[in-house]
């Protein structure tokens, strides 16, 4: 329920030398301090203008206001019940199209009203309560089968159940309690929908800005490959993590843009602007991905020339230009443009041309291979294309002001998926093969055990133990493990901070201000960084209970006990009770990755053999490659967090992931070249056999992963390209090389697939 704060990296640190001895350190320290302040201010600005902070403000206002107003009339208890209803509605108010959010909030209001009534009636007997906990925990944990929004609704329903199991009320109070929860949900829904009506494009704009920011970070990591003496494995790991984040952001923006009627109809300049920026950003991301080469060989040949450092500097500057676009989207200004970039790119181009296979500027002979020089030229051309794409996107800001933006011709429905809410899906998952079914059994079992333990000791609170189990337990073991640590660390740290506040701050107005600040932090980070959210949440609860006269020191100790018990049960359940290990489903993920890359390669290769470029099918296939790549990377990360004896063939899976990323990068390079030079492409008939052999090997790799009996070993071989006449024509040098590289990668994928044992 609560999620991570990211710190935006800004421009690289600059240190100026000074010949006046000790003054060198003073100048350097001053510049470092200035850069540090700049980075900090940009980080704060980025977060304050993010959708997470906006969500935090909206939820904090929606939850606090009812309690604050009714407390003035000595109706604080009623206000708290209404605030609970508002909180439940906010849980279902996850980012997405407004119709989906509205429907989810109304459904949540109805569901939590019914659950609160049932829970109130069930408290007549501890046995009935136990049955209710087991049954509803299973039912609402199964909501994962219908996607994230449905699972959020299930979390809201479980929250109401957990908070109500310790309160024994007469029937009239139960009815009023449910009514107040309903009113709170309606109040928050009205608030959220009203804000959307006032600013219909704001959430979509902020989501797009976050996506652009992640693409900028992705590019900075790519720039790191040109740094001398860098750790390739470590940087590649960062690249994969960034790729997962970028794909998540792309999906979120697609959801918001393509499923919002106001934007899809493009009746306003704002709607058209968001669509064209997003479409071009996806194309820009593809261009950034395509700059992937054998960096070890490049460093070995060119490190002493300093040319790779120039690449790193320019790529970093370009990433900062992308960041400028993100900030401009957030604050509504026009992005600034670095006027030195064209000059730097031109200087880079001239520096590459100055290098030759016969010798460099120092006079040494035969240092640089023609292949290496061609790689530098290819990278430089791609850098130019990235610059032009960024310039084009920045131009949209001016066109929007002049109201000159045209309509987008993309077929929106082709790029969105639709969640079906059919009862048959629920029954189809009622078996042990279903990951969600096993997760639901684990949650209900651990919740029931937690309730029994809490009832057995007077100093324990069943609602806190159950709440800990609910928010920690996830379908994957690795996610449960991560949340467990975050919950424990966050609770202990937050409890210490909370006690320090209560010991040293005695003014009620100051305490109330700190309470609001902690609430804002809790709700701002709940979908970004769970650890930070818990750190804020614990002092918020301690201060709240202090205001209510329920004690704080004893409460802090009890909360830590409850967290340890709940976290321990969640961990044991995930490890022992029908666990889900990543290797059990990774084979399917590997196969899907190969299928996506094969389709991508086939689509692009045919452009070189006469088939016309068709934008929509190409972009659909490209989207699938992005999604499958992120799925593979996520699966690898989760398996890496599991116990060692469950990390089957982890080195081979890592190599598989690298090779598939390399393949999609090479294909992206071919695609960009074909789209830009389609009318002037020469005849590549001699490459048809190479292309077909590559496809054959990819098909064989799929069979190997699927453990098919019909693998044809004879198809797994590298064919040599027939000798061709020497030419200076760029495409006749670059394109055959790319096809041969892809054939080699496909061969390596086959070989590594044979070594994977899952």
How is the secondary structure organized here?
Blueprint: H1 23-48, H2 51-71, H3 76-92, H4 98-122, H5 126-141, H6 148-164, H7 171-198, H8 202-223, H9 232-258, H10 261-264, H11 269-290, H12 295-302, H13 307-331, H14 341-354, H15 370-402, H16 423-428, H17 435-456, H18 462-472, H19 477-504, H20 508-525, H21 530-547, H22 553-576, H23 583-605, H24 615-640, H25 650-677, H26 688-705, H27 730-755
Helix pairs in contact: 2-3, 2-7, 2-20, 3-4, 3-6, 3-7, 4-6, 4-7, 5-6, 5-17, 6-18, 8-9, 8-11, 8-13, 9-11, 9-24, 11-15, 11-25, 13-14, 13-15, 14-15, 17-18, 17-22, 18-22, 19-21, 19-22, 20-21, 23-24, 23-25, 23-26, 24-25, 25-27, 26-27
Keywords: Cell membrane, Membrane, Transmembrane, Transmembrane helix
Membrane topology: Multi-pass membrane protein
Protein name: Putative membrane protein (TIGR01666 family)
Protein described:
This protein has 758 residues and is mainly alpha-helical. The chain folds into five domains: 48 residues, no CATH class; 147 residues, no CATH class; 214 residues, Methane Monooxygenase Hydroxylase, Chain G, domain 1; 152 residues, no CATH class; 173 residues, Methane Monooxygenase Hydroxylase, Chain G, domain 1 (Up-down Bundle), CATH 1.20.58. It has 27 helices and no strands. Helix 3 packs across helix 7, helix 4 packs antiparallel against helix 7 and helix 11 runs antiparallel to helix 15. The longest helix is centred in the middle third of the chain and has 33 residues. The two termini are 32 Å apart.
């Amino acid at each position: 329920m609560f999620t991570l704060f990211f710190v935006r990296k800004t421009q690289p640190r600059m240190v100026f030398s000074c010949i006046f001895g000790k003054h060198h350190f003073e100048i350097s320290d001053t510049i470092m301090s200035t850069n540090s302040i700049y980075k900090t201010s940009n980080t704060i600005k980025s977060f304050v203008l993010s959708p997470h902070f906006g969500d935090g403000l909206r939820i904090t206002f929606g939850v606090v206001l009812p309690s604050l107003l009714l407390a003035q009339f000595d109706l604080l208890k009623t206000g708290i019940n209404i605030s609970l209803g508002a909180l439940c509605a906010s849980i279902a108010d996850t980012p997405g199209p407004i119709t989906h959010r509205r429907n989810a909030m109304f459904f949540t209001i109805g569901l939590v009203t019914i659950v609160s009534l049932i829970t109130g009636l069930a408290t007549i007997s501890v046995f009935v309560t136990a049955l209710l906990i087991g049954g509803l925990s299973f039912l609402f944990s199964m909501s994962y089968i219908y996607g994230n929004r449905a699972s959020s609704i299930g979390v809201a329903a479980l929250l109401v159940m957990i908070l109500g199991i310790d309160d024994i009320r007469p029937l009239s109070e139960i009815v009023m309690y449910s009514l107040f929860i309903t009113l709170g949900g309606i109040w928050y829904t009205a608030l959220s929908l009203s804000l959307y009506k006032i600013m219909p494009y704001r959430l979509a704009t902020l989501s797009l800005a976050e996506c652009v920011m992640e693409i900028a970070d992705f590019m900075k990591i790519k720039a790191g490959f040109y740094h001398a003496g860098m750790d390739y494995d470590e940087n590649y790991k960062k690249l994969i993590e960034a790729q997962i984040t970028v794909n998540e952001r792309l999906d979120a923006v697609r959801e918001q843009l393509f499923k919002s009627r106001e934007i899809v109809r493009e009746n306003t300049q704002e709607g058209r602007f968001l669509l064209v920026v997003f479409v071009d950003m996806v194309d820009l991301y593809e261009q950034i991905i395509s700059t992937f080469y054998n960096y070890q060989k490049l460093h070995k040949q060119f490190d002493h020339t300093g040319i790779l450092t120039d690449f790193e500097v320019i790529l970093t500057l370009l990433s900062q230009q992308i960041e400028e676009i993100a900030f401009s989207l957030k604050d509504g200004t026009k992005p600034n443009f670095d006027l030195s970039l064209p000059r730097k790119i031109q200087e880079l181009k001239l520096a590459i041309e100055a290098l030759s296979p016969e010798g460099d500027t120092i006079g040494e002979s035969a240092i640089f291979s023609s292949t290496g020089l061609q790689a530098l030229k290819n990278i430089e051309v791609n850098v130019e294309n990235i610059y032009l794409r960024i310039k084009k996107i920045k131009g949209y800001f001016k066109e929007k002001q002049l109201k000159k933006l045209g309509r987008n011709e993309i077929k929106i429905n082709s790029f969105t998926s639709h969640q079906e809410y059919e009862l048959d899906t629920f029954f189809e998952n009622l078996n042990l093969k279903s990951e969600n079914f096993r997760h639901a059994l684990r949650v209900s079992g651990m919740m029931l055990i937690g309730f029994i333990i809490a009832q057995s000791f007077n100093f324990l609170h069943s609602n806190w133990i159950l709440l800990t189990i609910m928010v920690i337990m996830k379908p994957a073991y690795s996610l449960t493990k991560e949340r467990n640590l975050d919950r424990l660390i966050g609770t202990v740290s937050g409890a210490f901070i909370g006690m320090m506040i209560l010991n040293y701050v005695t003014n009620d107005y100051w305490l109330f201000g700190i309470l609001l600040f902690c609430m804002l932090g809790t709700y701002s980070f709940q979908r970004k960084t769970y650890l930070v959210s818990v750190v804020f949440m614990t002092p918020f609860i301690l201060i709240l209970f202090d205001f209510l006269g329920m004690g704080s020191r004893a409460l802090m100790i009890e909360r830590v006990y409850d967290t340890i018990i709940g976290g321990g049960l969640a961990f044991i359940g995930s490890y022992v009770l029908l666990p889900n290990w990543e290797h059990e489903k990774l084979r399917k993920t590997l196969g899907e990755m190969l299928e996506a890359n094969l389709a991508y390669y086939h689509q692009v290769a045919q452009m070189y053999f006469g088939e016309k470029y068709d934008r929509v099918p190409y972009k659909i296939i490209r989207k699938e490659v992005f999604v499958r790549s992120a799925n593979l990377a996520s699966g690898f990360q989760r398996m890496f967090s599991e116990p060692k004896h469950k990390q089957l063939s982890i080195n081979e899976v890592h190599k598989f992931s690298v090779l598939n990323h390399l393949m999609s990068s090479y294909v992206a390079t071919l695609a960009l070249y074909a789209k830009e030079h389609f009318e002037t492409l020469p005849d590549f008939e001699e490459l048809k056999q190479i292309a077909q052999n590559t496809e054959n090997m990819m098909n064989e790799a799929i069979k190997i992963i699927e453990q098919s009996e019909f693998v044809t070993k004879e198809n797994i071989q590298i064919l040599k390209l027939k000798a061709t006449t020497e030419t200076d024509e760029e495409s006749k040098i670059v394109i055959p090389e790319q096809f041969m590289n892809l054939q080699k990668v496909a061969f390596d994928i086959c070989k590594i697939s044979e070594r994977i044992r899952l």
